[in-house]
Design goal:
The complex is a heterotrimer. By secondary structure, chain B is α/β, with parallel strands linked by helices. Chain B has a domain at about 5-95 and about 175-250: Rossmann fold, CATH 3.40.50.300. Helix content of chain B is about 35%, strand content about 25%. Chain B has helices spanning about 50-55, 85-90, 100-105, 110-120, 125-140, 145-150, 160-170, 190-205, 215-225, 240-245, 250-260, 300; strands at about 5-20, 20-35, 40, 65-75, 75, 95, 175-180, 210-215, 225-230, 235-240, 310, 315. In chain C, about 75% of the residues lie in helices and about 0% in strands. Chain C has helices at about 1-15, 15-35, 45-55, 55-70, 75, 110-145, 145-160, 165-175, 180-190, 190-205, 210-220, 220-260, 270-275, 285-315, 315-320. The chains are: A alpha/beta, B alpha/beta, C mainly alpha. Chains in contact: A-B, A-C, B-C. Chains A and B meet through α7, α8, α9 and α11 of A and α7, α8, α9, α10 and α11 of B.
Chain lengths: ~350, ~325, ~325
């Protein structure tokens, strides 16, 4: 049965490649952006009123919860890179894990290719699980130190029924080549690799099952600058080759600018603003987005003299988030309504902003 | 340079004695820190930037060992001080803060008391006076409600506040030099910007020189006056910040700057420096960057370049700049 | 009180605080450095480090190896048959013929001690292995499944730990009678709880690791995650625990034999020899001292080796 499955999968892949090959000539004519716009039409994953809360102690009478993700509505389109940005504790990593059901949501629905995967039985979900993979931040923690490269990359293949030793080795070696790990490292263990190489191994493991959606959870923030650019390029290449969809979680706005088609800014479990990367960077609509962009240290001392507006204060606790708009305690433009009422999403062209008094 | 030099490191060498051989983690580093300036030390992990200053602070421990060079603090040679004498200097004249403030604070004491003890340790003042000093410092480093925070335990504070406490503790005795090892790496961008601004202000107001060890070129561009770029235990390029970014000379620095994604342009691919940082045990015979350098010539593989001065205060360790004469 | 606190604090705030920091920074830098050097922390390398840094542990390992060899080749090494009685030679002082003298039945004490090593080492290894296997599986299940499974297993472990294990072993021995096999069973049954606790706590922290999350995201089965991802990462601690559990098993056997409910005569158990020599403690002290010294040497050697192994295999265990 499993063999049959593999064959089917292969045939499918072949077809896909062919299609991509045919499409390429066209694409070159139309330019990459045009192709992206075309692909954007198709929604791959769709979250509705998603809530995730964690118990945070408290007494039995008065239990406390961490409001990690509150009422999030989000669409991820086929073939795009959607970046999830925000400061630590804003719930971006939690959201990413909830979307592929590594964590079960407290409430809400997640539609993957039209099917609601929340509450779906484990056996049912198993066939979708292989289509959603994740790449982790810490290349030292994400690989089992007691497994060799061949075992790590081979594990997903074995889990989904690849039994033939020769076939397995061929596939693992192919994947290693795909991510730029030299063939002679086939039997090595993770501790013999540098951070960047480990991250490549993690990527190979994630693409082994030909997934459609990959959650990239801060995949480059633990890497050195020169290695970071290598990995980012690799991610872009793989996306092009396999038509992957990325949810790219990051706190680094320069990296996001490079890799993302659309950006979703989060603050304390809620979405502030969603929009396509260029226009969002050019003209942020939410005050928080503007402060974030202002705060990035820019690698050009000439920009130093411009006196920039800095955000004051600390991030409020997600256990007792502020009422109304959660950003109001740090927002210089906050008025009474911001303290009382959470803002509804407003559309501004293709963009959506959750603010009573959007900028611009 | 005409300014008075508070800290001078001359040809420092620190090696690691491992089972596989002697590793030159710091290999002939010379750094000068003028009074009241912010000096940036930038480089990738394992380039020896932290090790250099661990050596300066006398915090290097087996299998690491300082094997050569001299360190002058305010004109005084502190290289061969006994541990006891050195611990008097440490925290008083020169202090250090680290990336993760949580590990440097004792979790079972309120932060105010910890800072107070730092004062009592180095200065003869009453406990009451010391407490007042702590509150002053807390205000100076921008901790709101200092009276309340005085009694907070480290885990009750956010990362940004903890780092402020650490900076406060480091500044308590008005040291001449403060070494900050990746002080903002664990913080969020909005908090990072606050801390950087705080360090700038302290430097300006109190005249403390700050050595900022970082991997982030953005941070360097934002606050530093003078920059040293390190690679594989050596200084590859050193210059005033503006000069470094405008007339970037060393191929490594150039590559580093080009591989950072820019906010103001949409690139299809990022520039990359090929390969990985070389194994310090098996460094190339010539220039340590030659294996990754696009401009490497035959000579780069066989001979080690010296630091050449291209303009006043701008040094480059690359044969391409040899004609300009030897630096330092 | 106030004074001690201030003293503590001085250290904390002064350069000591930096020492602590230095350790942390060192671990970070060392990681970076070793990754960069492609330096492997393979088993051989770690053992080499131990030999270099901890001479006592290395020396203990050599001693244990020699004792092990002597036990295996006892018939070759021992100068006499350990059961051969010779009433004419009874209670002789140590001499060239009998290096450690003879006992009340004229048996050569040295030979008996060499043969006794067989019993002690077997008692040290076999029940420890069995009890640790039980403890490992239970600890893994408790940590991985949590909830009720965890509650039941750990309360059971608490009950086991609340009883003095020797007492429990005695109860088992009394009900089942003496003899080696019964010692095995008794010691296996009473000693699993400590292992279960340690494995459980390691499982709890390991199951939060990203590589376990990665396995879950692939859809790897629970048992595979437990035995392929979590268990191998507990191994270093288990090895350390193993070396540290062996001496306590040896001591338990000696105690049981000393109390007369362990090994039965004429077997050459060290505990049994010590108790039989008690009668002659003042006239022929070597009869008790020699077997006691043998117990002490083996137990200490295992403990030193265990400490040394812990330092290299499990540095974080020490830190905690």
């Amino acid at each position: 049965m499993s063999d049959g499955m593999m064959k089917d999968k292969k045939a499918e892949d072949g077809g896909q490649e062919k299609k991509m090959g045919e499409g390429r000539a066209q694409t070159e004519k139309m330019g990459v952006d045009a192709r992206r716009v075309e692909e954007k039409r198709q929604v791959l994953l769709h979250a509705r009123n998603l809530v995730k809360e964690f118990p945070a102690g408290g007494t039995r009478k008065n239990p406390q919860v961490v409001h990690a993700v509150t009422n999030v509505n989000l669409e991820i389109y086929q073939g795009e890179t959607l970046a999830l940005v925000g400061e630590s504790g804003c719930g971006k990593s939690t959201l990413g894990r909830v979307l592929i059901r590594l964590l079960e949501p407290t409430a809400g629905e997640i539609h993957y290719e039209g099917e609601n995967i929340v509450g779906m039985g484990e056996a049912d979900f198993a066939r979708l699980r292989r289509q959603m993979q994740i790449i982790f931040q810490d290349p030292y923690a994400s690989l089992n130190p007691r497994m060799s490269v061949k075992e790590i990359i081979g594990e997903p293949l074995i889990t989904y029924g690849m039994k033939d030793k020769g076939e397995l080795e061929a596939k693992v070696r192919e994947l290693m080549g795909e991510v730029g790990i030299a063939q002679e490292f086939y039997n090595r263990y993770p501790h013999q690799f540098s951070g960047g190489q480990r991250q490549r191994i993690g990527i190979a493991r994630a693409i082994a099952l030909n997934p459609k959606l990959i959650i990239c959870d801060e995949p480059v923030s633990a890497l050195d600058v020169s290695i970071q650019s290598q990995v980012l390029n690799l991610l872009k290449d793989l996306q092009e080759r396999y038509g992957l969809t990325y949810l790219f979680i990051s706190h680094d706005l320069s990296v996001v600018k490079f890799i993302a088609d659309r950006v979703c800014v989060m603050f304390l479990g809620m979405i502030c603003e969603i929009g396509d990367t260029d226009s969002l960077y050019e003209q942020p609509l939410h005050p928080y987005t503007r402060f974030l962009l202002n705060a990035i240290p820019k690698a050009d001392p000439k920009l130093r003299s411009q006196e920039k507006e800095l955000l004051t204060g600390e991030i409020p606790s997600p256990v007792n988030p502020p009422s109304g708009c959660r950003f109001h305690t740090r927002c210089p433009y906050a008025e009474d309504i911001c303290r009382q009422k959470a803002p509804e999403g407003r559309m501004a062209g293709e963009r959506q902003v959750f603010c009573h008094f959007p900028l611009g | 340079m005409s300014e008075s030099i508070v800290l001078e490191i001359r040809d420092l060498r620190s090696h690691f004695f491992t089972a596989k051989g002697q590793v030159p983690a710091v290999d002939g580093v010379s750094i000068q820190v003028p009074a009241g300036k912010i000096i940036g030390i930038v480089g990738e992990s394992g380039c020896g930037k932290s090790m250099t200053f661990m050596s300066v602070m006398g915090l290097l421990r087996y299998p690491g060992k300082v094997v050569g060079g001299t360190i002058f603090l305010d004109g005084r040679d502190i290289t061969h001080l006994k541990p006891k004498e050195l611990s008097k200097v440490r925290g008083n004249e020169i202090s250090m803060i680290f990336q993760e403030p949580m590990t440097s604070l004792n979790p079972v004491y309120p932060v105010g008391k910890q800072v107070r003890e730092a004062i009592l340790l180095h200065q003869k003042v009453s406990k009451k006076e010391a407490r007042e000093r702590v509150l002053d410092i807390f205000r100076a480093v921008g901790i709101s409600e200092p009276e309340k925070r005085y009694y907070s335990y480290p885990h009750q504070l956010s990362g940004g506040l903890r780092q402020r406490v650490m900076i406060g503790m480091a500044m308590v005795c008005r040291p001449k030099v403060m070494i900050a090892d990746e002080p903002t790496t664990a913080l969020d961008v909005t908090i990072e910007a606050q801390i950087l601004r705080l360090m700038q202000r302290l430097c300006r107001e109190q005249g403390t020189s700050i050595i900022l060890i970082t991997h982030n070129m953005g941070v360097v561009a934002e606050v530093c006056d003078y920059v040293y770029v390190m690679y594989a235990g050596k200084v590859m390029e050193q210059a005033e910040t503006f000069a470094l970014f405008e007339r970037t000379s060393h191929p490594y620095t150039q590559g580093l700057l080009r591989s950072i994604p820019k906010l103001d342009e949409k690139a299809k691919r990022l520039y990359t420096i090929e390969g990985v940082v070389p194994n310090l045990l098996h460094l190339p015979k010539g220039c340590s960057f030659c294996t990754r350098c696009g401009q490497a010539r035959e000579r780069c593989f066989s001979e080690r370049p010296k630091l050449y001065e291209t303009e006043d205060g701008h040094g480059v360790r690359c044969f391409a700049y040899e004609r300009e004469g030897v630096f330092v | 009180m106030e004074k001690t606190m201030t003293e503590d604090k001085n250290q904390v705030v002064g350069s000591e605080a930096m020492d602590g920091q230095r350790d942390k920074e060192h671990i970070r830098e060392d990681l970076e450095l070793s990754a960069q050097l492609g330096e492997s922390d393979s088993w051989e390398d770690k053992l080499k480090t131990m030999v270099r840094q901890n001479k006592l542990a290395a020396f203990s390992a050599v001693i244990l190896f020699l004792i092990f060899l002597a036990a295996v080749f006892a018939p070759v090494v021992a100068p006499y048959d350990h059961l051969a009685q010779s009433l004419t030679d009874r209670l002789q002082d140590p001499s060239a013929a009998h290096l450690l003298g003879t006992d009340e039945l004229g048996r050569d004490v040295l030979s008996r001690i060499i043969y006794g090593a067989r019993i002690s080492l077997t008692i040290g290894l076999v029940p420890t292995l069995i009890s640790m296997a039980i403890g490992t599986v239970l600890g893994l299940c408790a940590g991985f499944y949590g909830g009720k499974v965890d509650f039941i297993i750990m309360r059971l472990a608490d009950v086991m730990l609340a009883f003095p294990s020797l007492l429990l072993a005695m109860v088992v021995m009394y009900t089942m009678g003496g003899g080696l096999i019964n010692i095995f069973i008794a010691l296996s049954l009473v000693n699993w709880a400590g292992t279960a606790r340690i494995v459980r706590s390691q499982t709890l922290s390991l199951k939060e690791k990203e590589f376990v999350e990665a396995a879950r995201s692939i859809g790897v089965k629970k048992w595979t995650i437990m035995f392929r991802h979590i268990l191998p990462n507990c191994l270093p601690s288990l090895i350390v625990l193993f070396t540290l559990n062996i001496p306590s098993a040896i001591l338990s056997e000696a105690s049981l034999s000393f109390l007369g409910i362990g090994a039965q005569p004429p077997s050459a158990s060290w505990g049994l020899m010590a108790v039989r020599g008690k009668k002659y403690l003042f006239s022929e002290p070597w009869l008790s001292i020699a077997p006691s010294a043998a117990i002490m040497i083996v137990v200490m050697a295992f403990n030193f080796l265990g400490d040394g192994l812990r330092d290299v295999l499990d540095p974080y265990l020490k830190e905690q």
